[in-house]
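[job 4471] stage=fold_predict status=RUNNING
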Amino acid sequence: MKKVFVLAEGQTEERFIKNVLYKEYIYAGICFIPVILSTGKTKMGNKFRGGVSTYSKIRDEVLKLLNDSSAAAVTTFMDYYALPADFPGKENLAAFDCYSRVDFLEKCFMDDIRHRRFIPFLMLHEFETMLFADVDKLAGAFHYKGNSIYSLNEIINKYPNIEEINDGSATHPSKRIKDIYSDYMKSIHGPVITGRIGLDVIRNKCRHFNQWLTSVESI
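[job 4471] inference complete, writing structure tokens
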């Protein structure tokens, strides 16, 4: 059994890893183990978990996980959207397409960590991208349908790939979903909808996400 630690941004990603990735891969001999990013401590020593504040906190957590030699690999599951300003390479991002930019940032991340068991991954553009892989399943999670499927398809049709639904403050995937379904709750709806859609469909629609899993499968 190959143990793979996944440093996750928050509870939504943690649940996705447990409910979808773990179940999909455990019988293939890969055990995905989510670890939520620790962003601070209280005076009593309890950890704050979730969210990305500074790159230094991400780096420290990755290096701690890499110290566990029982892990075949350590990877990340964090949003490209709203990365901290001090993330490696962010100040040098060129105006290329989103795939070139995320590849560049992941390479800078890899170069900074410099460990053979590390596999960096940033989700284009955020977790909610995967929900656009099947708009019927997405809409099915809400009581109100109306013309919501038409609105979702209208968004998708503007882009060559759902991973390109962008990182604008008013146009990133979760904001678009929230505009259509005001009762959307990421930590509740996100893992449920992705589980209904299924990993094969998501991989087919999200090429960067698929590349990440292919890299993990090859360890």
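[job 4471] summary: The chain has nine helices and seven strands.
[job 4471] exit 0
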